[in-house]
Amino acid sequence: MPNETKKEEPVKQKTPEPVKEKTPEPVKPATTDKKEDIPKIMKETEDTFAEVKTEETPKVDTEAKKLIDLEEKITIAKERGNLHFKKRAFKDAIKAFSEAYNTYIEAKSPRQSESLCTKVMQVLTNRSLAFHSLNQQASALADATIVLTQFDPLNAKALFRRAHAYKT
Predict the structure, then answer these.
(1) Domain holding 126: CATH number?
(2) Which pLDDT band holds residue 57 (cuts at 50, 70, 90)?
(3) Residues 58, 165: Cα–Cα separation, whole Å
């Protein structure tokens, strides 16, 4: 027994078990539905589609959409005022700038958008210049002061418009 060698037993490999395929469940033929069941089936189908449609439709942030619409309205009126100003039709420019500012005021002055506030400051400084062009210094001063007190106390154009109104 001193020189006894162990014989290695061969490793048995397990053979994979056959995969059992699932057989699809039989589909009921359409002829088994009764005419009375059709409204019920249609309702179930509509409910299913409504659930899918609701899940797939992204929710639109209505506040963001309102803000975008407001900014577009203000921009259009502002551009119209700029065109009138270039034609030296200062009264028409003031009307257009006033329309833009009033649109902002009627929207309860939302201040969450920096770009919207920038537009409103531009509208007011432009209107201030139009008032100055008509030698209406009190109105020019008022618009410049609104920009400085309600939006940006360091707005260079508003500071210049206000100084110009005081000077004249």
Answers:
(1) 1.25.40.10
(2) very low
(3) 51
